[in-house]
Sequence to fold (414 residues):
Amino acid sequence: MLPWTALGLALSLALARSGAERGSPASAPQGDLLFLLDSSASVSHYEFSRVREFLGQLAAPLPLGPGALRASLVHVSSQPHTEFPFGQHSSGAAVQDAIRAAAQLMGDTNTGSALAYAKEQLFAEAAGARPGVPKVLVWVTDGGSSDPIGPPMQELKDLGVTVFIVSTGRGNRLELSAAASAPAEKHLHFVDVDDLHIIAQELRSSILDALQPQQLRVSEVTSSGFRLAWPPLLSADSGYYVLELVPRAEPGTARRQQLPGNATGWAWADLDADTDYDVALVPESNVHPVRPQHLRVRTLPEEAGPERIVISHVRPRSLRVSWAPALGPAVALGYHVQFGPLRGGAAQRVDVPADRNSTELQGLAPGTAYLVTVTAAFRSGRERAMSAKACTPDSERSRAPHPPPPPGPGGRGP
Fold:
C-alpha cells in the first residue's frame, strides 16, 4: 500500500483538478429504487388508484436498465407482498405498466412489517442485493400504521438507504419527520392525493440525485455527526482510502481516517454543532488513479430539550402541564406529551404544536400518581425529553381549603 505522504495527497489533488479518472463519467444514475405502496383497507379505492398513477408517472422517465438503475414495488397490507422484484423490468415504461396493473390488497396497514421485509428480502446483501450501489426507498402513505415503523426504518437507514416519504395529508408530522432521511424538508412531502403531480418533478430530481454513482454522499446529519457513503472505487487488493475531515473555521484541526479498499461508508461522530466541515475522500491505489471526491457538510444546531416542567390546575380527572421551551438554536418541530400511571397502565399521548408550551391532560383517574414526559422533536429526527411526576387528588372536596373552626363562647374564635 502507498504511504500517506504529502506527495501522494498532492498527486491526488492534481488528478482531481485534471479530471483524470478511470471508467465512465459520473452522470448516469445507478442503484436500487423501492416503491412502498400503502395497499391496505385504510386507503380508499380512489386514493389507491391516484397514488398508483402517480408512482407510474414518477417511474416512467427514469433511466432504468440492466446493471444500472433497478426498481421494485412492495405492498403494505396485513402481510407485505412484492409486486415485482429488482431487475424484473428493464425500462421505465415497463415499470409504469407494472405499477398500473397492481391490485389493491386491502387488509391492515402493517408498514413496520413491510419495512422489515424490504430490508431482509430486497436491500440486504444476504438476499442478493448489489453491494455498494445507492439505495432509495419511496414510501407513499395516508399517514397511519398499525405497527411501529421507527426501528425497522432506522435499520434501513443504517444500511445506507435514503428514505423519501409522501403523505397524502393525514400523517403525524413528527413521526414522519423522524422516519424520513434528514433533512426532513428535502425528503418529506405533504400533499393532497389529487395534487400529487405537483411534486412529481421535484421528487424525481431528488431521487436521481440520491442515485448518482461515483458520488460521495452524506446522510443522517445531526448536531454531532453524519454518515458518509460512496460506491466501490477500489477493492481490498487494489488500494485503500484516506478520509479527511476539516472544520472550515479551523483548518489546522483536521481529522483523518484510513479505510480498506473494500469500504463504502463511514460515520463521523463527536463533532461540533452548527459547524461547516470540508470532507475529502482520497482513494490511494497502485493499480489505477482515481480522483478524490469532496463535499461540504454543515452539522445541525444544538438540539436542547424542554428546560423545566410545571404541573398546575390539578383536579381529580385533569391537570395542566407547562414547560420552558428549548433555548438552543435548533427550533423544535413540535412536542408530544406522554402520560401514564406510575403503577402501570396504558400510556396516552398528546401532540402539541411548536408555538405552544402547555396543554391540558384529561381523562385521568382520581387519586393516581402519573409520570408525565414532554418530548421535543427536531428536523434531524432526534428527540429530547424531560419527565415529571404528578398526583391527582381523590376528589374536588379534598382540594378545598379547610373551613375555620366555629367561634367559641362569647362569639370569639380560639
Notes: The CA atoms of residues 40 and 77 lie 5 Å apart. The two ends are 97 Å apart (CA to CA). The longest helix spans residues 45-59.
